[in-house]
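Give me the fold.
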Amino acid sequence: MIDRSLNFLKPYDVEDLIRVGRNEDGGYIISKKVLDDCDFLLSFGMANDWSFELDFLNYSSNKKTHIYDHTVNLTFFLKRVYKSIKRLFYLKSSLTNINLKLKELLNFLTINKKKLLHFKKKVDKKIGQDTVNIEQIFSNIKNNKIILKIDIEGDEYKILNDVLLFSNKIELILVEFHSIDLKRNEFLSLIRKIQMNYYIIHLHGNNVTGYCEDNLPRTIEFTFLKKKSNNLLKLKKNNNYPIKNLDFPNHPYISDISINFNE
């Protein structure tokens, strides 16, 4: 159970939460109404899983997404296939694993580039040959109703203040905060800033990285919904997370991690 001083992290009540993406790491919880209303997804972080982005695109024919991830290209997936084959000779891989890596490669090669654009750029504070900043990213988007997903392994702390300058265009923010034990002050400060314009409507602890000393998970996925005059929400009655049939462990072979609010 976490300390009462952290009760401001407790989600507000939204009845139309759904899971988009797979039932492991890579799936996220959003409002169905927002999914219906927003035709553009901006995604920071891709790696070898873009099931969330694909589910979003498959929801209706007019949806599009931009993904920014400087670590991903054809070589990235070829190396994953090669490594899996090499490990087979040391009995540390399997034909199933090789097939999985080949499927990842095929999925990457067959991305529908009319609906999903991948930019091999690092989202950063500055513009460079291999970097892009938030202002430049938003200048390439004409849509005014955007879902934003951020999973960039700690760099969320560098860019979120700039992201919030475009709150007028972002209906819902998904962000995974990392290293909360080491970045506690930055984490709390950013949450407070986001809450000026957004409600927390869901949160889920990542079961891979464990707990801080005060039982708060070291890594937490948040869903933030924009505040509007017609969506004055009340705090959720539920004090315990994860939520059955909505949340699933990031790592399927490790028990899920709990967040229990102290009322």
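Residues 177 and 220 are 5 Å apart (CA to CA).
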